[in-house]
Amino acid sequence: MPTTTSLEGQVALITAAAGAGIGRATARVLAAAGADVVITDLDAGRTAKVADALTEETGRKVAGHALDVRDEAGVQRLVDEIVRERGHIDLLVNNAGTSEPAPLWDTSTESWHRVMDICLTGHFLLMRAVLPQMIARHSGCIINIASIEAWDDLIPDNVVYQTAKAGVVGLTRAAAAQVGQYGVRVNGVAPGLVPNPFLSRMIPEKDLQALHERAALEHVISPEDIANAVLFLAADSGRSITGETINVSAGAYMRA
Q: pTM of the entire structure?
C-alpha cells in the first residue's frame, strides 16, 4: 500500500455499510488501507454478519453496530462508545440514504421527512457528534456521500432525494469552511448510478441501461470506484482538499 493512501492507525466509522453496495465496498477498501473500521446499519444481525465477513476478507477486525442515523441519542451514544474504547475517530463516512420517488404534488409530508432525515439530517447528526473530538485533536476527515442528482435530474420524480443531496453538498462546503482552521477536512463524493437491488426496483431495466449508456466512458461504475475516491480523499493524497464534492459517474454528468 503506497504511503499516500495508507490509513494505518486510523479509526473509520462508516454508516449504512451492511448492504452490498457503496458502504460495504468502502469498509473493505479502508480496512485494506490499514484503518480500524466500524460499520453501522439498521439491522443488528445483518451488520454483525457483514462485519465478520469483512474481517475474514481483509484480515483486519471490523466492528459492527446497529444504528438508525435519525436517532440523535443513539448517534451520540455510539460515537461516545467508539471514542471511549478506541480513543478517537479519525474518519467519518456518511453513507446512509434512501429515496421515495413521486411528483412533488403527490409527496406526503411523512415521505419528505423520512428521506430528508436519512439523507441529510443523519449526516448532520453524525458530523456534530464526531467533530468535537476531531477539533480537539486538530485532526480528522469527514466524507459525505452525495449524488450527481444533487446537480442533475436522472431519476424521474426524485425531487426529495435530489433536494436532500443538494443539501449534502451545501453542508459539506459550509462545514469545511468552519472546521478548516482546526485541521479537519470535509469533502463529498457524488456517485452516478451504481447498480444495486434497490435501484433496480425503482427503475425499469431498459431505462437503467439507457442511463448507464449515457456515460461518456461507456461503462457502469462500481461500488469500488466510489470507495477508491473515498480513500483518496481520506488519506494523505487528499491532504489539501476540503469543501469539495467529487463527481464519480464515468462522465454521466460533467460539471463545468
A: 0.95
